[in-house]
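Aim 2, interim progress: modelling of the adenosine-5'-triphosphate-bound target.
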Amino acid sequence: MKKRIKIKDLLESTDFGKEINVKGWVRTKRGIKTIAFIALNDGSVIHNIQVVVDITKFDEKTVKFITTGSCIGVTGILTESQGKGQAVEIQANEIEVYGTADPASYPLQKKGHTLEFLREIAHLRPRTNTFGAVLRIRHAMSFATHKYFNDKGFYYIHSPIITGSDAEGAGEMFRVTILDDKNPPLKEDGTVDYNQDFFGKETNLSVSGQLEAELTALALSEVYTFGPTFRAENSNTPRHLAEFWMIEPEMAFYDIHDNMDLAEELLKFLISYVLEYCSEDLRFLNNFYDNDLISRLKFIVENKFVRAVYSEAVEILLNSGQKFEFPVKWGLDLQAEHERYLVEKHFKKPVILTDYPKEIKAFYMKQNDDGKTVRAMDVLFPKIGEIIGGSQREENYDRLYSRIKELNIVEDELWWYLETRKFGTVFHSGFGLGFERMILFMTGLGNIRDVIPFPRTPRNAEF
Ligand code: ATP
Ligand code: MN
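Predicted structure of the complex, ligand included:
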């Protein structure tokens, strides 16, 4: 057999009359008299290529086994298509059936399926147009992330996934242990003796790579992590996963304004990149799920984000005359409904809010001179609410130390973090961009379970 050519390349080819080979999965087969038309997809692009089969040239069995979901290889002549809707097609000379798919039990027959149903068959949903598009966009965004930072001279840091500190305070953690769950060693007071566990102490899956990224930023100046993070938060929302990916840049010599500039530039770069390189996938999502998707993406790229402080946002919400489910009051955290009101109804642009009350933010954020607020920043997007959380970090040893004490954080677990404020400390900043939240925005889909191949959520770890 000839060397395989990807459908993406064939659809752009004008090598008519040439014999080529394609391999892929059959989306549909239909026939008129002695001709069969097969729509074949290999995932390289959202479009199928049409394979035209003169049934009289093949034995009956081969043709019978070509059904929706089966995997085949076709060698044939590339021709200019007679039919509407495609430019090229293949006149089949040889067909090899690699894997059949019984029409009575293959779940992805032609009819449209709900996203909820597709979640139950996450092992097969990559074969749908929707998930093909999502996975290609996910790839493009990963690549664009590395490109953006690499081009700016940032270094990619691998922060640990198993962590010995549970002090980040970003959420509930998943324990990592090898102790016998039926008969764990106990201390004299009856509690589990983690001294005898693998690491000789309690360990968890990381909720964020930030603290370790900070350590390296205070040496390499500008770094980022991009890895999985884990939060045992029992919030069954369309925007929370128990396992999600986070992009976390951390920069020495950046204040909060530099931090905001970087966040805005990164978000615009990622969107521009996907608009350029995933235009066909976006067009599909725009047509089937969200008619405003592409114009919304362009709107973000073309407009400067609004910058405002938390106190101002609270005033706006209080004067809005709007009924919210959750209360609005200075000192309370903003909920997604509040964030979306600010972005979609009030400012009508993405918003970067800064200077939140210190009580609702993490211990490491730089304290403002008012004694009440910290130099936090959240980036709020339409449809999503918070997409980025970040801050300028507290670089002053005494102020950081007193905040740790105030919050009763076990100081012993953070001695190494504190030491960076003792030796060559300097102002620095960083943020976390939830990768799946960004893909949600980029695809126009409504549920975060549909933008990661195999979602982990409360009571669900199948596949
Ligand atoms: P939220 O209030 O929405 O739960 P957070 O304040 O807990 O977010 P951070 O700890 O600041 O979020 O994390 C940084 C970013 O990571 C968030 O802005 C968001 O994009 C993303 N993120 C946080 N939690 C989750 C989650 N459970 N699933 C997916 N993405 C998340
Ligand atoms: Mn959270």
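The longest strand covers residues 19-32. The longest helix spans residues 129-151.
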